[in-house]
Amino acid sequence: MSAHPMLKVEGLHAAYGKIVALRGVDVEVAKGEIVTLIGANGAGKSTLMMSICGTPRAKAGQILFDGEDITTTPTHLIMRKGIAQSPEGRRIFARMTVMENLQMGASLVDEQYFDEDLNKVFDLFPRLKERSAQRGGTLSGGEQQMLAIGRALMSRPKMLMLDEPSLGLAPLIVKQIFEAVRELNRNEGLTVFFVEQNAFHALKLAHRGYVLVNGEITMTGTGAELLKREDVRAAYLEGGAH
Amino acid sequence: MAGETESGTGQDQPVATTHPEGAQIKTEERAEAPNLVVSTGPRGLSERVKQAAIATFITAVLAFFFFPIRTSIAPGGLDITWRWSLYALALIFAFFGKLLVDAYLLSPAGPRVRAMVSGLFILGFVILYAWHPLGDILFGTGQFEELLGSILIGTVFGAILLGLVVLISRATGKIGTAATGVAAQKKADRISTFGKWALRVLFVVALMLPWIVMFLFPNRDRQLIDISILILTYVMLGWGLNIVVGLAGLLDLGYVAFYAVGAYAYALLAQYFGFGFWMALPLAGLFAAMWGIMLGFPVLRLRGDYLAIVTLAFGEIIRVVLLNWSEFTGGPDGIGRIPKPTLFGIEFNRGEGGFADIFGLDYDTIHRFIFFYYIIFVLALITHFATMRLRRLPVGRAWEALREDEIACRSLGINTTLVKLSAFSIGAMFGGFAGSFFATRQGFISPESFTFIESAIILAIVVLGGLGSQIGVVFASIVMIGGIELLRNIGFLSVVFGENFDPTQFRMLIFGLAMVLIMVWKPRGLISARQPSAVYKERKSIGADVVAQGEGH
């Protein structure tokens, strides 16, 4: 582990108007780690993801990325520092082709890396290669998620953030996507921070996990530890461990 | 499924004998499915009449202060004229119009109801129109034509607005599962091969057009070249607006403002500083681009409907300023004697030193027409190639990405502020070029030339052509502008429709009708295929079935 963590969130408060979403959240992601954030609907998981990217702005607290304070940096500049996000609902460019989507991901990267990165993404998700000339909106849900991750990877990130990558996908596809994330982490040492509803799969994949309840972190520990805890099982896993 | 079959056949509904039973059940299922937009209108005849009555009532309330009461300035105050007959006619139109719209569009009726409703409508129309004595008795001598005219205009504007609304809402996206696979791809390839040749032929025709016209129609060459110049001006405007609306997805209802800025920039530069056309042209583009940025800044946060309203207001502000700043712009009198362009300093005048004199030709006014044609031809081509080039550059891709999803754009580190402003300013720049060409061609400009209807026509060209499609804009311009001009040539129909028949008065009606028809048959515009700007391995055109321009997500 390096001297400073990849991402450090300290005492983060965030709100939408008067509705408070986060009440002093502390999260740390070390370099080369996979960290997950689990929690129920409306706990503030996506808000935390988005606050890190600058919308909504933090009301209080501090966000450090790679040792640098990014609490008040404009969104597009935060993304240029090496954070890539696959947003909730995937948000691919529906009327552009797969290829063009990937090209958009590489907008800020020197052109010389393009072919290399493209081949990496195609190796990771061979389906995207088959569908490279197809319009993004015509892909299946799983393929769209692959595309969203691929597009994020094209920006050569230091840290990849995924917002609910399993949303609306069949268990088999979820497995495939999680396997790809594990591979990325193992082979390239990519730091991954992701939000999940699917707590069982998330905790199995992640090195460490945080549990977010009503805008506050209530539990933290390694993935295995959290999986064993009775209260976690009761709240997030009962009937969900398939 | 089984349960629905029972409910479908269990009711006492007339079963169409011409359809197989399965189809009938399927139709009923669709009609009953709650989340499908199939039938929003009324069903039974009494329900239809009730709805029509409601529509008539609403019209009665809304139109009360517009139709029956006309105030005019009379010596010593206002004079009120009552026009009850017009009011009555409007209500009759509303009643039958609602019946018609329901029967054909909102809740398709059976053939009998349709025939009855449209028969009544046509019959009434024909009786009132053809049988003048009745119209004269009902509405007073000579009044009927005038009343009919105002109602037609009202209907047409309604149709245009409805068309715009529906087109735009379709364009901004709904879920549509598109066909994929080999068949669609093959079709796309075939179309693209055919399209390539069609485009080449079209280009050559456009290049040779003045000569073709002079050869084929020696008596009407000036008129036809003039129409071609007009069409090309709109092609250029359409391409300029296509950057903003088609590529960047920013709905701009005030594009005519930039056209006006370009025209006035040249006219004023010529008037106050004696600039020639070629010197003023780049400056006009620059001014328009600056105004594009000025409009862009305040509306950065807006999208969709809100953006449309603000741009609409912006277009009006420019026009009203031009109208009222009389000392500077000449106000409603406009600016006249705008100099014509020269060919490397050679003017197209009669006599010594003119174009004809230097090249040893007989003086003919057609030389100037041909010159104008090639100026706008080249300007339009520049617009096209600049757009095509930009589409392949990061900024062009960012425009399209912005159209698709602004949040995703920002999450990829794209500065959406810059992307929007660049789309506004570059689109405005081409509008400015076209504007200064307009000024020099007309020789006279006034704020009257830059009303909202111009914006609407340009937007209609872009949308009808297929948002984002370059060649679609060309076809739409030919149809819309050329079609309207063609109407001037069907005066022979006055034999049928009576002495006072003037086909150009119906141009707005036809304009509206064309929009509605295209909206129904080709909701994605005439040309809906999109050429991807980047490919892996080989370049393929993606057919409309796969790319579904205008629908998707």
Secondary structure elements and their pairing?
The complex is a heterodimer of chains A (242) and B (553).
Chain A: E1 7-16, E2 19-29, E3 34-39, H1 45-52, E4 60-65, E5 68-69, H2 75-80, E6 83-86, H3 98-105, H4 114-124, H5 126-130, H6 141-153, E7 159-163, H7 171-188, E8 191-196, H8 199-205, E9 208-213, E10 216-222, H9 223-228, H10 230-237
Parallel strand pairs in A: 3-8, 3-9, 6-7, 7-8
Antiparallel strand pairs in A: 1-2, 1-4, 4-5, 9-10
Helix pairs in contact in A: 3-6
Chain B: H1 2-10, H2 21-32, H3 45-63, E1 69-74, E2 77-82, H4 84-106, H5 111-130, H6 132-139, H7 143-171, H8 182-216, H9 221-247, H10 256-273, H11 277-296, H12 304-324, H13 326-329, H14 355-358, H15 366-392, H16 394-404, H17 406-411, H18 416-442, H19 452-465, H20 470-486, H21 494-497, H22 507-521, H23 544-547
Antiparallel strand pairs in B: 1-2
Helix pairs in contact in B: 3-4, 4-5, 7-22, 8-9, 9-15, 9-16, 9-18, 9-19, 9-20, 10-11, 10-12, 10-18, 11-18, 15-16, 15-18, 16-18, 19-20
What does this structure look like?
The complex is a heterodimer of chains A (242) and B (553). With 242 residues, chain A is of the alpha/beta class. Chain A has helices at 45-52, 75-80, 98-105, 114-124, 126-130, 141-153, 171-188, 199-205, 223-228, 230-237, and strands at 7-16, 19-29, 34-39, 60-65, 68-69, 83-86, 159-163, 191-196, 208-213, 216-222. Chain A has a domain at 7-82 and 158-237: Rossmann fold (3-Layer(aba) Sandwich). In chain A, strand 7, helix 7 and strand 8 form a beta-alpha-beta unit. The mean pLDDT of chain A is 90. Chain B has helices spanning 2-10, 21-32, 45-63, 84-106, 111-130, 132-139, 143-171, 182-216, 221-247, 256-273, 277-296, 304-324, 326-329, 355-358, 366-392, 394-404, 406-411, 416-442, 452-465, 470-486, 494-497, 507-521, 544-547; strands at residues 69-74, 77-82. Chain B has a two-stranded antiparallel sheet with strand order 1-2. The chains are: A alpha/beta (242), B mainly alpha (553). Chain A binds chain B through residues 53, 55, 75-77, 79-80, 84-85, 87, 91-97, 99-100, 103-105, 107-108, 118, 129, 132-135, 137-138, 151-152, 155, and chain B through 173, 177-178, 180, 394, 397-398, 400-401, 403-405, 407-416, 530, 532-537, 540, 542, 546-549, 552-553. Chain A: Keywords: Amino-acid transport, ATP-binding, Nucleotide-binding, Transport. Chain A: Belongs to the ABC transporter superfamily.
